[in-house]
Design brief:
single chain, about 260 residues, alpha/beta, four-stranded mixed β-sheet, three-stranded antiparallel β-sheet, 10 helices, 9 strands, disordered C terminus
Length: about 260
Amino acid sequence: APGFSDKIKSNYEKNSKKNTDFDRDYLSLLPQPFSIDLALKIQKLLGGKSYINERSTKSAFLANAGEHKIIQISTHAESNNDYPEFSRLIFAKNTAENKEDNSLFVDDIYNCNLKSNLAVLTACESGKPGYQDGEGMISLAHAFNYAGSQSILMGLWKIDEQASVLLMDLFYKNLLKGLPKDEALRLAKLKYLEHADRRMLAPQYWAGLVIMGDTSPVMIQQKSSLRKFVTGGIALLLLGFGYFIFKKTGRKVISTHQS
C-alpha cells in the first residue's frame, strides 16, 4: 500500500524536480490513507509482511511478492483499452533511487512468480479487460492468474477507496471463519449494505469487487494474543495436573543426560 501521502509526493518532488524524467502525474495521485490502515490491520490479524508508504516500491514487490498464501495490493491502477499490455499498477517512487520505474505493467506481471492462493487487487479497473491481437481479452487480474495466483479479487471499474477498505475488512474476517472466498465476499457486501447510507449504497461503491478463479477457502490462522493466552493457560493446567499426579503417586522423576 503506497498510500501516496502528501509527504511522499513532496519528498519525491524535492529530490527529483531537476531531473529530466520528473513525473508530474505522480504528484496528482490521490492519497489513500484508508489503504494504509487496512494493510496494518491485516498484518495484525494474519501476520506476514507489509510494505507501506515509501517501502511499497516496484522493486520491493518483485523481490517479495511470490510464494505466499495471500497477496494484498491496495494502490492506484490504470487500464489501457487500446493497448492492454500497458495497463499498470502504480507503486511508490523510491526517492533514494530517483530513476526507478514505479509502474508494474501487464507484461511485467506475466514474467513474475506470483504463486499464491489469493491475490487481492483493490485497485481501479484491475479486472477490466482489453483486447490484444493473438492473446484475446487480457487484464491485470488475468496476468496475476497467469503468474501463479489461483484466485484474484479484482475491481471491474473505478472503485471508492473507503468503501473498498470497509468491504475488505469484512471479507478478511469472513475468510478467517473458513468460508469460501466467494461466500466471504458475498456476506461482506451484505454486511456493508446493512451499515452504508446515502450515496454509499449505490452499486458503484460495492458491486465492482468480484472473485475470479478458485473459490475454495484459504487455510489461514489468526494471529491472536488471546490464542496464546489460552494455549499458555492450558499448558499451566496440564503442568499443575501432572504435579498433582506426581504428589499423589509419590513417584520420582529421574532425568538422564547423555553427552
